[in-house]
Design a protein that fits this description.
Blueprint lengths: L2 H17 L6 H13 L3 H22 L7 H26 L4 H10 L5 H26 L5
Length: 146
């Protein structure tokens, strides 16, 4: 096992303990983390986690029945949401690009399609990445890097 794979494995183990079993797409998230570590794209992984956390927050605003959004504000939030979906897909693509065709195919079919199911899958993966961002923030507060 390479050093990068060992680092990714240790990182994922610690993150799993932090998340207390709340990860919905553990296997796919692990693939992304492993590829980021293996090909030196940890900075992109951090950016992806940030964007996913932001997107998750926007999604909560949009779907909350308590939020009676005015049309102008809703249009702005919807535009931001769409822009962040595009940004997240771009970051995923950069991270998984060096991976196998099999991994690219999985992500294309499961997350990047244009169906409602693909969008729901992507949102769930973004929720996992939002937890990852919280974990990265905790590491930063402790003075630890990843």
């Amino acid at each position: 096992m390479s050093d990068a794979k060992k680092q990714a494995s240790g990182f994922l183990k610690s993150f799993g303990e932090f998340s207390k079993g709340k990860i919905q797409n553990e296997e796919d998230l692990a693939r992304v983390v492993e590829l980021a570590f293996e090909y030196g794209n940890k900075e992109l992984l951090g950016e992806l986690a940030f964007e996913a956390k932001y997107l998750s927050g926007l999604f909560r605003i949009i779907k909350s029945p308590e939020n009676k959004l005015e049309e102008e504000y809703f249009g702005r939030v919807k535009g931001e949401y769409t822009a962040h979906i595009v940004k997240i897909k771009e970051l995923f693509t950069k991270i998984i690009e060096p991976g196998s065709g099999f991994i690219k195919e999985i992500f294309e079919k499961k997350y990047f399609g244009l169906t409602q199911e693909n969008l729901e899958n992507l949102i769930k993966l973004c929720e996992d990445l939002a937890r990852l961002k919280s974990y990265l923030n905790e590491l930063k507060e402790k003075g630890e890097g990843f």
